[in-house]
Amino acid sequence: MSVIEELQITPYINAHDTYTVYGGSRMSARTLEDMRQIAAVFVDMEELQLRLGQAAAQLTKNEDAFFTNGSAGALTTAAAVCICRGDPFVFARLPAVTKDAPDEIIQLHCQHNAYDKAVEAAGAKIVEIGDADETLEFDLDGRITERTAAVFYYASSLYARGSLPLEQVIETAHRRGVPVVVDAAAQLPPVENLWRYTQAGADMVIFSGGKTLCGPQDSGLILGKREWIDLCRRFGSPNHGVCRGCKTSREAMVGLYSALRQYVELDHEENRHRLLERIGRIAVRLEQLEQVRLETVHHGPVGQDYPRLFIHLASPAQAQAVHRAMRARHTYIGLEGAAVYVSPLNLTDGEADTVAAQLTETICESM
Ligand SMILES: *Cc1c(COP(=O)(O)O)cnc(C)c1O
C-alpha cells in the first residue's frame, strides 16, 4: 500500500499554477535522487552552504548565493542582515531593534503584497512611498534617512502601473548608500532573470525553489553581492536568532541546487514548444465545443514568459461552475472573470489529456 493510500490523501492534477496550497511544483527524478544521496550522509552544514552557494552563483552568473527555506524565509533573512549590517549585538536582539540600528525598509505602495509580514518578522518597519498610480524619484530620495535599512522591490509585472523602474530605484538608493533587495520569487522564465536584476545592480535577489525551478517546496535562494551573502551565511539559519525559523535541510538545499542546475541547462526554446504543444493537446479537444472561445495568453500570472490557455465562457457564473466542477474531479484550474484557464507548467501529457476530457464534460454540463 502506498503512503498516499495509507493516509487516504486525494491526489489532484495541477492545471492552475505553482501555488503553495497545492504543493507548488513537481521535482524531477534526478532531483529526488540527488536528495536521496545527500540524505544518506552527514555533512558540515557550513561547508555545504558555502559550496552550494559558490556552485549556484556560477550557474546563475552571480557573485555568491545563499540557500534558505523559501522566499518568505529569504525576505526575513535579507531584512535582518540589512538592519544589523554585521553588528552581532544588534542581530542577537532582533526582532527588537537596538542601538539606533536602521530599521526602516522602504517599499513602493503599488507593490504592497501579502509578504510584508516576512519582512516585519525580522524587526523591520515598512515605510511606503508613492501611490497606486505612480512613484517618483523624489518620493524615494526624500524618504531615505539614517533610519533606512534597505529598499525592497517586488519584480512582478502586476505592479508595473505605479512603479518606479528598478534601475532608477537602484541608482537613487545606491547614491544614498542604501542596499536594494529584489523579490523575484516567481519571476521565471525567462531564465535570464536569474542574473538580470543583479546585473542591474541589486544587492540581493530572491527566488523561490518550489515554483518554476521545481525544487523542494521548502527551499529558496538569495543571489547577490558577496558582502551581503557573507552576512547571510554569518547570521542566517542555522545560526541562532531571528532567522533560525528559516532553517533548511541538506536535502532541500541539494534538491534546490540540483533543480537549479537542470533548469539552467534546459533548452528553454524547446521547453516553450513543449508547453505550447501541451496546451494544443487540450485546445484541439475544446475547439469542438460551441460557445467557447479559446485564447493562448503568452505570459504567466505575474508576467512570466510561458503560455496559458484561456477558455472564455458565457458568464462569470458559468466559469465559476466549471471551476467548481473541475475541483470536484480533483483538478485545479484558474478562474478569471468569465474565463477559466489552464497552465501547462505542472502537467504531464497524460494529465493534459485528462484535463481536456474533464473540461469538455464540465463545460457541456454547465451549458
Ligand atoms: C511565492 C512568493 C513568495 C513566497 O515564496 P515561498 O518560497 O513560498 O516562501 C514571496 N514573494 C513573492 C512575490 C512570491 O510570489
Polypeptide structure, described:
InterPro entries: PyrdxlP-dep_Trfase, PyrdxlP-dep_Trfase_major, SelA-like. This is Aminotransferase class V-fold PLP-dependent enzyme. Strand 6 (180-183), helix 9 and strand 7 (204-208) form a beta-alpha-beta unit. Helix 2 (29-39) packs antiparallel against helix 11 (250-265), helix 3 runs parallel beside helix 11 and helix 12 runs parallel beside helix 14. The relative contact order is 0.16. This protein is globular. By secondary structure, it is α/β, with parallel strands linked by helices. The longest helix has 19 residues, at 268-286. The chain has helices at 3-6, 29-39, 45-59, 71-84, 88-93, 116-120, 137-143, 166-175, 193-199, 226-235, 250-265, 268-286, 316-328, 349-366; strands at 13-14, 64-68, 104-108, 125-129, 148-154, 180-183, 204-208, 220-224, 293-297, 308-312, 331-332, 334-336, 339-342. The protein starts with a helix and ends with a helix. Pyridoxal-5'-phosphate (PLP) binds next to helix 4.
